[in-house]
Design a protein that fits this description.
By secondary structure, the chain is of the alpha/beta class. The protein has a single domain (11-86), classed as Rossmann fold (3-Layer(aba) Sandwich). The chain is built from two helices and three strands. The protein has helices at residues 18-21, 26-45; strands at residues 11-14, 50-55, 83-86. The protein has a three-stranded parallel β-sheet, with helices on one face. The longest helix is centred in the middle third of the chain and has 20 residues, at 26-45. The radius of gyration is 15 Å and the shape is globular.
């Protein structure tokens, strides 16, 4: 007998914040964002969730509400995409993801 799984796919879009992207060469950044946006589109077409994961860091001055904190405008995210804020490099540590 086959068991049904409660596991459903979701796309985690992690740390594509303006602050982080400053350290990536433009050509690499463009290629990465093209691929990320393709995956976002694919997940939306299948009605799977796209979850935005942001990093905050007092050490680096990365605070909510600042331009550095925001995702790049080149990302195909929407205001309806759920948000997770993390304070550690691990997106699952001390967040609501499980």
């Amino acid at each position: 007998m086959e068991q049904k799984s409660n596991i459903k796919p979701a796309l985690l879009v992690i740390d594509i914040q303006n602050f982080s992207l400053k350290f990536i060469p433009d050509a690499d950044k463009e290629a990465a964002l093209t691929m990320i946006n393709l995956y976002i589109d694919m997940f939306r077409k299948h009605k799977f969730p796209v979850i935005r994961i942001y990093h905050v860091s007092e050490k680096h001055g990365l605070k909510e509400g600042t331009e550095d904190f925001e995702f790049t405008k080149s990302a195909a995210i929407t205001s309806q995409d759920p948000i997770i804020i993390k304070t550690y490099p691990d997106s699952f540590y001390k967040t609501d993801l499980d």
